[in-house]
């Protein structure tokens, strides 16, 4: 299967990658729905409640306590999946990364054209004046972070009850619709509307890489049930070896 994937990549010139939480688990960031993920831990309120817009507005102190403890992983580093995708972009084969993750690890690995469907912990803004703030400002603030103008600062992440950014969705759909190969990795494809982006793909090289099965497996031209970092890491090494032979 890995050889087939490598060959598909070699023969493609317009690849788009669509990824979810599983892409970052090998960097030490827990996903939301695995056995050991965030949704299986116990807190005073369910994560879905804490990570909602209404809870953020009503109980910002509790929101930020949870957010700092369970959503910020500032020591996490890009893994083999992130690095392999950045390399494919540098080669001119990968045209875009569409991610549901908010950790910024794709950019840290070197990817440039990244569409963050659910926002990023690295962007924060004052809800009154719009002044931007860094992740470090949020992490080290005591209690609820406030702007110099007095307004409350909100992470630029999409909370429950909030819509996805229309322009980000539009551009993601546009890239996927034009791709000759779509690689989907580290996602169970159950979170909508993001999961619906797969419907824009019209090509014949749909690859799914995930440790568990998904509703879209029957549509895939290749499905691999292994950790995505291991898979893309091996494919990356295979491409490098091929480069050395042809150099």
From TrEMBL:
EC number: 2.3.1.286
Family of the protein in this entry: Belongs to the sirtuin family. Class U subfamily.
Cofactor(s) listed: Zn(2+)
Binding site for nicotinamide: 32, 102-103
Location in or out of the cell: Cytoplasm
Residue intervals passing through the bilayer: 179-201
Chief site of localization: cytoplasm
Protein name listed in UniProt: NAD-dependent protein deacetylase
Domain Deacetylase sirtuin-type residues, every copy: 1-245
Residues engaged in binding NAD(+): 21, 25, 32-33, 100, 102-103, 118, 187-188, 210, 228
Top class in the EC scheme: transferase
GO terms for cellular component: cytoplasm
Active-site residues per Swiss-Prot or TrEMBL entry: 118
């Amino acid at each position: 299967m890995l050889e087939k994937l490598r060959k598909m990549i070699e023969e493609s010139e317009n690849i788009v990658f669509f990824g979810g939480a599983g892409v970052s688990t090998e960097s030490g960031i827990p996903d939301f729905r695995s056995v050991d993920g965030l949704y299986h831990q116990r807190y005073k309120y369910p994560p879905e409640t804490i990570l909602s817009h209404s809870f953020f507005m009503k109980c910002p102190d509790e929101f930020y306590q949870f957010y700092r403890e369970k959503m910020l992983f500032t020591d996490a580093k890009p893994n083999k999946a992130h690095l392999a995708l950045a390399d494919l972009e540098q080669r001119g084969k990968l045209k875009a990364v569409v991610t549901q993750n908010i950790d910024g690890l794709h950019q840290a690995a070197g990817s440039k054209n990244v569409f963050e469907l659910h926002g990023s912990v690295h962007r924060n803004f004052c809800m009154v004046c719009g002044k931007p703030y860094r992740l470090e400002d949020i992490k080290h603030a005591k209690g609820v972070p406030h702007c110099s103008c007095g307004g409350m600062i909100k992470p630029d992440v999409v909370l429950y009850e909030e819509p996805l950014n229309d322009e980000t969705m539009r551009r993601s759909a546009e890239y996927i619709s034009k791709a000759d190969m779509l690689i989907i990795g580290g996602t169970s494809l159950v979170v909508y509307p993001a999961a619906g982006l797969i419907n824009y793909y019209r090509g014949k090289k749909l690859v799914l890489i995930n440790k568990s099965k998904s509703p879209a497996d029957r549509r895939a031209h290749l499905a691999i049930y292994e950790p995505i970092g291991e898979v893309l890491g091996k494919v990356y090494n295979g491409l490098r070896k091929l480069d050395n032979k042809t150099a």
